[in-house]
Design goal:
The complex is a heterodimer of chains A (241) and B (178). By secondary structure, chain A is mainly α. Chain A has helices spanning 15-26, 31-60, 64-87, 97-107, 148-170, 174-187, 194-208, 211-224, 231-238. Classes of the chains: A mainly alpha (241), B mainly alpha (178).
Chain lengths: 241, 178
């Protein structure tokens, strides 16, 4: 079957129709949005990989050290790379290659569990990891701070723990998400991703139907962080001012 | 959740624009499209291992359509809640004084596409906007080529009629865009 001429290419076609189609074709995420989306995907992927490898190591036992270092290496490189991508809007254009290349090496070791190749039903959108721009610096400038490696590993652990909460939310289990967030709070008393954890908690409370607590927590958060990138989302979700 | 990170990264880089546009044309507001696009790839990540490379785009399209449908339901719920609290405007008013041509065009585009039945919209988006061949659309949607052709004809009629209606209602002038 020969394809018909597309409307936009038809001689003597309607100008407004052509303009609308041209507009539709030209749309896309902004360069900043693109960077955030790709960085968020890389961060989530790295966190998932680190978690998988740590779990695999804990069951295998024997190769524990090697695999843990592998997981740490992935997270240590990919997550800061994702952060660099996210911060690119404020600095020089962010390199995207490091995040990708950092993820390539160990990827062959991880195979997905067989599952039907059909799209899954989308869950209500929780806070996305692309919202990581509020992350603090990975390597503080002051000399008394922990070493870069320690800090990056801790950040990977935090992302992995928050990812558990996020997945629980996606799966429609706000109670489980709240439990994961409680674990997060216990494991990381001085968190680097405190804002993200709070927003996830608000999402979980809201999803559980605890609107009053969600709103109260959101109002507290907004009072301290009126210009947070999460502000619009929280106001929309909870009605907080 | 097991993820082939290298493949996911490649797929995201290759198909992000396609997914983003599909989400928009399926009714996801511009302000929510980045979140939704990321969600498409993270939701798809689990299943990518079972998707042949040549089917990646079709798989992402189907995932995007589902996520867009969920987003539309969410928007309708919010709109219902809003309507219950206040009197919603009967018709979006596009003031030429307040809105740029580009913004009015985008609003019109959203409305025209929203008016189109979903099965027609799928074919229209893939053919007229994404410039995918009839044969490939048939493969993507897993429907006969003849059905694609039939839907495309009806989609074009719907598109043209919607544009005509909007033009009559709003006085939107030809050549106002661009």
């Amino acid at each position: 079957m020969t394809d018909p001429t597309r409307l936009i290419d038809e001689a003597g076609g309607d100008a407004l129709e052509g303009s609308l189609l041209q507009l539709a074709r030209s749309e896309g995420p902004s360069s900043d949005g693109r960077r955030k989306i790709l960085a968020g995907i890389a961060a989530a992927s790295a966190a998932s990989l680190a978690t998988q490898q740590a779990q695999a190591a804990s069951t295998a036992g024997k190769g524990l050290t090697v695999v843990k270092w592998g997981a740490l290496a992935v997270a240590a490189v990919a997550i800061p790379a994702a952060i660099l991508l996210l911060r690119g809007g404020h600095d020089s254009p962010a390199p995207q290659a490091p995040a990708a290349s950092a993820l390539e090496a160990p990827a062959t070791e991880v195979k997905a569990t067989p599952a039907p190749a059909t799209p899954v039903e989308a869950a209500p959108a929780p806070v996305a990891l692309e919202d990581l721009p509020t992350l603090p610096s990975v390597a503080p400038a002051t000399g008394s701070a922990p070493s870069g490696r320690q800090n990056q590993g801790s950040l990977a652990d935090e992302v992995a723990q928050l990812q558990k909460a996020k997945l629980a939310l996606k799966g429609g289990s706000p109670g489980q998400a709240l439990a994961e967030l409680t674990t997060y709070a216990q494991r990381f008393p001085r968190p680097m991703l405190g804002a993200e954890a709070t927003v996830l908690r608000i999402e979980a409370l809201s999803q559980r139907g605890d609107a009053a607590r969600a709103k109260s927590l959101a109002e507290g958060f907004l009072a301290k962080n009126p210009n947070s990138p999460y502000a619009a989302r929280l106001r929309s979700l909870t009605g907080a001012r | 959740m097991a993820i082939d990170s290298a493949r996911l990264t490649r797929v995201a880089q290759e198909h992000l624009d396609f997914v983003w546009r599909c989400l928009r044309r399926f009714g996801v507001p511009a302000g929510d499209a980045d979140d939704a696009a990321q969600q498409v790839f993270l939701v798809a990540a689990d299943k990518l291992a079972d998707v042949p490379v040549e089917r990646e785009r079709a798989f992402l399209f189907a995932t995007a359509a589902r996520i867009a449908a969920n987003a539309r339901r969410s928007i309708r719920r919010r709109q219902t809640a809003y309507d219950n609290l206040s009197q919603a405007p009967e018709e979006p008013t596009m003031s030429q004084d307040e809105l740029s041509d580009q913004l009015r065009a985008r609003t019109l585009l959203d409305q025209v596409m929203a008016d189109m039945p979903e099965d027609l919209r799928e074919v229209f988006v893939l053919f007229e906007i994404e410039e995918i061949s009839i044969q490939d659309i048939a493969t993507t949607l897993e429907i006969p080529v003849g059905t694609v052709g039939s839907r495309l004809r009806r989609a074009r009629q719907a598109f043209q009629q919607a544009v005509t209606r909007h033009r009559a209602r709003t006085g939107f002038k030809q050549g106002a865009v661009g």
